[in-house]
């Protein structure tokens, strides 16, 4: 089954074309990577997928729904962690998880989610007092508390230390094992190679290559995804 279908997507901001004729599909249960430099069109694309921005051209289906027209219905079925997301400074960790769980009809137990993501010791701590890594971990937990069918994770491990980063990778693996579809936006090629079934390389608002990590390396005659990426964007 196809979880995401994007055809000729276009998104502009005034005279700036952020996404230009992008097309791809994501199968249900797949972990799909989106990589590229800043300004390549990655975040604009995933914001259109989640219904946060309306495309200027093309079509999108996510779990059979048009995100622009059925955003509320889609929000019940997906989780989103965006790089620039924030919360009120005085909101406590436990309060945030309890609040977000209330937005869904069939959420996970927010206490278990808090425990799973190592947030229980921070339950009474205010968002404004969290470190960058702690805020990132909370945002990921909030994206998962609704027990989503599909999760969009933008710069998943930015700000996390190496141990927390590997623990987060393991939790993404658990999502895949549970059949959850994951769209992972990342600057880290080792992360994309370790976690993603297929990877779309964005540059200048377009997808310039798409395939498994092995396919991208073979196509460029390189030995690592880092080298393949550099060769592709060059």
UniProtKB/TrEMBL annotation:
Keywords tagged on the record: Antibiotic resistance, ATP-binding, Cell membrane, Membrane, Nucleotide-binding, Translocase, Transport
Entry annotated with the keyword Ribonucleoprotein: no
Residue intervals of the ABC transporter domain: 4-229
GO MF terms, alphabetically ordered: ATP binding; ATP hydrolysis activity
GO cellular component labels: plasma membrane
Subcellular location: Cell membrane
Name of the molecule in the record: ABC-2 type transport system ATP-binding protein
Species name: Nonomuraea dietziae
Lineage: Bacteria, Bacillati, Actinomycetota, Actinomycetes, Streptosporangiales
């Amino acid at each position: 089954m196809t979880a995401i279908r994007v055809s000729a997507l276009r998104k502009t901001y005034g005279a700036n074309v952020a996404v230009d004729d992008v097309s791809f599909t994501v199968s249900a249960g797949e972990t799909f990577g989106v990589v590229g430099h800043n300004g390549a069109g990655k975040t604009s694309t995933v914001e259109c997928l989640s219904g946060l921005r309306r495309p200027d051209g093309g079509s999108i289906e996510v779990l059979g729904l048009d995100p622009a027209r059925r955003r509320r219905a889609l929000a019940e079925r997906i989780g989103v962690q965006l790089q620039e997301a924030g919360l009120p400074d005085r909101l406590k960790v436990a309060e945030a998880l309890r609040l977000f769980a209330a937005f869904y009809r069939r959420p996970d137990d927010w206490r278990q989610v808090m425990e799973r993501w190592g947030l229980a010791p921070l339950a009474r701590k205010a968002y404004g007092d969290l470190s960058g890594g702690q805020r990132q971990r909370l945002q990921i937990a909030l994206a998962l508390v609704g027990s989503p069918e599909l999760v969009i994770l933008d710069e998943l491990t930015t700000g996390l230390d190496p141990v927390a980063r590997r623990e987060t990778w393991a939790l993404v693996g658990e999502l895949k094992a549970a059949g959850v579809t994951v769209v992972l936006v990342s600057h880290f090629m080792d992360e994309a190679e370790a976690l993603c079934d297929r990877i779309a390389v964005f540059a200048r608002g377009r997808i310039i290559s798409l395939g498994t990590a092995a396919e991208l390396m073979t196509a460029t005659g390189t030995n690592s995804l880092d080298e393949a990426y550099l060769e592709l964007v060059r």
